[in-house]
Amino acid sequence: MDVAGYREYVAVQLDPLRRTAYLLCGDWHTADDLVSTALIKLFRRWKRVSQMENIDAYARRVLFRAWLDERRRPWRRERFTDTMPEPGGTGPVTETSVVDRLALAAYLAELPPRRRAVLVLRYFCDLSVEDTAEVLGCSTGTVKSQTARALDTLRERMLAAVTASPVTSRRH
After folding, report:
1. Which of 13, 37, 81, 158 could form a disulfide with 66 if both were Cys (CB 3.0 to 4.6 A apart)?
2. DSSP H or E segment with residue 47
3. Could you tell me the pTM of the whole model?
């Protein structure tokens, strides 16, 4: 087995997998658990996986299925708090950017799991409609409709928040 190749892959892909897992579940601790589970499964099949054309797609699929498995477990049915963890240290952090990220994360967390997964895979992981359909095990039409509905929901909620904001109403 090519352990060095596995370690090299994990060193490069650990942060992207962790961020993807966070966007799926909305909790850093659960995201770390999901990534650990996915990496163990990946390691068990590394000899076969290392020969694949697109290892990243396989790793995302394993991560997504690990997330689905976790959601089915009864002890994972818990509610999250309103406070978010500190953002990562990439680029300048301003008060506005933090508020925007927190708001977007909150809107994303309100979406049903399937729609949230479609948005994460399509826009965060930058997967095509076909690749997203393959990861989710559904048709491309389902991906398109779920994406459209999720974006409509986000748009409506963000617009409602902007129009209800006291700062906005004072300007008009």
Report:
1. 37
2. helix 46-49
3. 0.54
**What single string gives the DSSP state of each residue in 113-142?**
HHHHHHHIIIIIS---HHHHHHHHTS-HHH
CA–CA separation, 115 vs 144, rounded Å? 10
Tokens standing for residue 14 = 């650990």
Q: Which among 134, 122, 149, 120 is positioned nearest to 22, based on CA atoms?
A: 120
Q: Which DSSP category does 26 fall into?
A: S
Under 8 Å between Cβ of 6 and 48 = no
The distance of Cα 133 from the centroid of its chain, to the nearest Å, equals 15
Can you tell me whether residue 96 is helix, strand or coil?
helix
pLDDT digits (tens, 9 = 90+) for 94-115: 666 777 778 888 888 889 989 9
Q: What pLDDT sits at residue 85?
A: 58
Rounded Cα distance between 163 and 68, Å, is: 35
- Whether the predicted pLDDT of 169 surpasses 60: no
The whole-angstrom separation of Cα 34 and Cα 40 is 10
